[in-house]
Amino acid sequence: MAKPTVKDIKKFLEIFDKLCKFEASQRIIRGYGCFSEAEIPFKEVVKVISWLKSKAAVKDKDIIDNLIVKYEQKAEDLRVESASAQAKNDYISYSTLNEEAVVYEDVIEDLRSVGGLGRLKSR
User: Fold this and answer.
1) Whole-model pTM?
2) Shared-domain flag, residues 64 and 111
């Protein structure tokens, strides 16, 4: 079976919440009262639901941080390739790779300035 997507997890949580509300209202209507710990493994349910909610939550900062790390690695790889090209006296490749690295570094600076994240430390 395939891993659930964020959309699948959010839909599950929505349905689970509706079922819990329905069950609670039915227990009240029928005079059963609230659940007791013997009836449901409450701590485990809370733990699983909390984990699912954390998996369904995607934070903009996390996305930006991941992009910064990815682009920093790409810029570093380009710098290494350009140094290798320079060592081989291939100045066209050296210049092209350096220019591409500068583009990635500019993007990194732009990403750091998004949403007040300008003071993120680079790895």
Assistant:
1) 0.48
2) yes
